[in-house]
Amino acid sequence: MGILEIIIITFVKILIIVTMMLLSVSYLVYFERKISAWTQNRVGPNRVGYAGLLQPFADVFKLLLKEDIVPDAANKPIHTLAPIMALVIAFGTYAVIPIGPAVELFGYNIQLVVADVNIGILYVLALTSIGVYAITFSGWSSGSKYSLLGGVRSSAQMISYEISMGFSVAGVLLFSESLRPLDIVASQSGWMWNAIVQPIGFITFVVSAFAETNRLPFDLPEAEPELVGGYHTEYSSMKFAAFFLAEYANMIIASALIVTLYLGGWQVPYIEMAGLSAGLTALIQVGAFFVKMGALLFFFIWVRWSLPRFRYDQLMSLGWKVMFPLSLVNLIWVAVLVMLFN
Amino acid sequence: MIPIEYYLILSAFMFIMGVIGVLTRKNAIIVFMSIELMLNSANLTFVTFSSYLGNVTGQLFVFFVMTVAAAEAAVGLAIIIALFRNKQTVSIDEINILKW
Amino acid sequence: MNIYDLIFYLFATITVLSALAVVSTKNIIYSAYNLMLTFFGVAGLYVLLGADFLAIVQLIVYVGGILILILFGVMLTNKVNGMPIHTEVTNIIPASITIGLFAGIVLAFFMNTNWKSVTTEFPATTIQSLGKLLMNEYILIFELLGVLLLIALIGAASIARKQ
Lengths: 342, 100, 163
Description:
The structure holds three protein chains of three kinds. Chain A is built from twelve helices and two strands; from the N terminus they run αααββααααααααα. By secondary structure, chain A is mainly α. Chain A has one domain. A two-stranded antiparallel sheet of chain A has the order 1-2. In chain A, helix 8 packs antiparallel against helix 12. Chain A starts with a helix and ends with a helix. Chain B is mainly α. Chain B has a single domain, classed as Orthogonal Bundle (Helix Hairpins). Chain B has three helices and no strands. In chain B, helix 1 packs antiparallel against helix 2 and helix 2 runs antiparallel to helix 3. Chain B is elongated, with a radius of gyration of 17 Å. In chain C, 74% of the residues lie in helices and 0% in strands. The longest helix of chain C is centred in the middle third of the chain and has 26 residues. The model of chain C has no long low-confidence stretch (mean pLDDT 82). Chain C is mostly helical. The chains are: A mainly alpha, B mainly alpha, C mainly alpha. At the B-C interface, helix 1, helix 2 and helix 3 of B face helix 1, helix 2, helix 3, helix 4 and helix 5 of C.
């Protein structure tokens, strides 16, 4: 393959991923509203289009047409920069997550991942830790105490939960012996899913993912009743929409990451025994990836509308005194397993 | 291929910026950032030599430096916050109890 | 000029400009922001030098850890709301003499030495070789660093706590 072909193929992949992300983010908002309505025994959005299916577009147009207000006390350059940062980081993370096996397409052997990086998992962890800046800067630059409190809370929360997240991932890496997402998926062939082999690590990772994405029950950075809206109190129009999109994009990334690390990625157990053609198998596997991801996203939304919010000290002691030791226990458990069976 | 001198001059520049920050700024936190700048320039030199001599050990030392920098940041900021609590300032020329 | 040279100049420019801005801006948050850019520039140079693992660790430790701590320090020790946070400059004359001397010596040394360099092809990833070195020859330092981090953690917590 020449360099030009590689560039074109990568470009097409980026285009597909970004379009998919934008569409799925807006429909995720729709599903969130529908599921919350279902949980609360309401109807939910049903006016725009059939069963409210065009509602996401109406929302986007509403936000686009609103006036962009920047408070007087705000620091303008950083106030503008923060939402852009949030969005770029959220979309950049998806580059290393594989959505399917290598496929033959138009005579080329194409990996279904934008960038097949050797240290892909570390890249994801690095980007999540940079994501803290978007929220901290937005909180500081707004010049309002609610925003500032939201920003400080969020950075403390995300740093604390990054630790248990990192240690849970270390358990996965002990099995795969590689930091490459494709190898991690390959190491979970058959029913050797990490969620089954190391259930404690799975639980700590999922809880940390909830905290990292600032979702209920850990949404203290934006806690509406006490902080008015937290770090994005002073944002309006498209800047607010950018934060909103970034939050949902982070949810999608978190579920894609959980699928890749713990639920076998795009693999369907024992599908090679069914004797299907290569193209059909690949199609089913890509489908399986999205089904798993959808189930996790439903779980995210379901939890949000079922559980109350934690208090801040409870959140911190959960992170440091429960999740962190549990992830260490998981690491030891995996090490023992590797020692016994390798 | 970039000559090795370019990397070295770049890291020297970063180090000098760090020295300027430490010597001229009054705010303890800026002094702190300047120290991080100096540590980074040392790291860059390590990695440059490691790459140009084909030996990975240099990179390992960067790893050690980063660990020490993390420990230093935690303790240093704890001291700054304790100082601020006692004296309501982080300006280093107002922190002079030891001077008689 | 090939593409690697272009990337070098790009990252070098980012690093130089942002390092300059760290020590010259008055607003402390701008300093922190520029320090973040410097760290990014250095991480890019690491990738260019074949140290992929270190580049990522640079992002995780410096950008995701140390700089966030520094931002915390800024937010906890300044009147953040209201006016922008300005800081002052001191000791201009003695500092400039020292720095001038120091810069002259370092630059003369770097320019005049005939540096040895071996052109070797770096492996695709340095993780394996780093891990082997860390677990064999440097295992004692590795363990000691673990102890150091623990001590720093306890020390920081006990210093910063309210009595």
